[in-house]
Specification:
By secondary structure, this protein is α/β, with parallel strands linked by helices. The protein contains nine helices and eight strands. The longest helix has 14 residues. The relative contact order is 0.17.
Amino acid sequence: MEKTIFEKHPSKILNELYSKRNYQGANPVDAQILFVGRDPNWAFNVETQEMFNYVTEYLTDGVTFWKTYNIHHPFLLPNYKGDGKRYHKIFSKLNVESSLASKISFVELIGFPTTGMAKTNNKIFLEYLISAENRKHLIELDKLLNDFEKTIFVAWGLLEDFKFLNRATGLFRKLAEIDKTEMIISELNQHENIYVHRHFSDAISNATLEKMKIEIKRNIK
């Protein structure tokens, strides 16, 4: 049975890869569309799975991986077993073409790989979030999310994390000021260049996905 405790991923290889590129897909500095998540979650035993060579290939160059295999993430490979698969299966419903791989980036609040579900131990998640190890990542992420030239998709639940981060660090003021009471969780909500939506792993509707498709096409130059 797969280990489910939430913790920093023990894989030395994964951590080395993230120390060089703490994002997935295109470099977020260059990308036009950013999808923001909580933490980069990988199966505890991913290093021993037969598809791990695809993981290292992906984390080394996500754009080339997408264009080579015509899938945006190795979690979509049939022999991957673990958390994260549903998220990327739902994302694939957006039908983003591989030719746009250099425009799309996945970034998370935590800049090092994790395993297990964060919601099972929110105390540890918050400790990781404001840890000294994660501080540089947060500063870089804050700059990215303040770039009005980018189109940013944020899952609904992250708004509370941004409020916590703003109280704890002073970062992410713009996102912390977003008022969820003026939004509808089942809709695609727009605040300037930021779109708030139900998490891909949650019960996101096909109607919301269709609206996201439109905004992606409209905002890619």
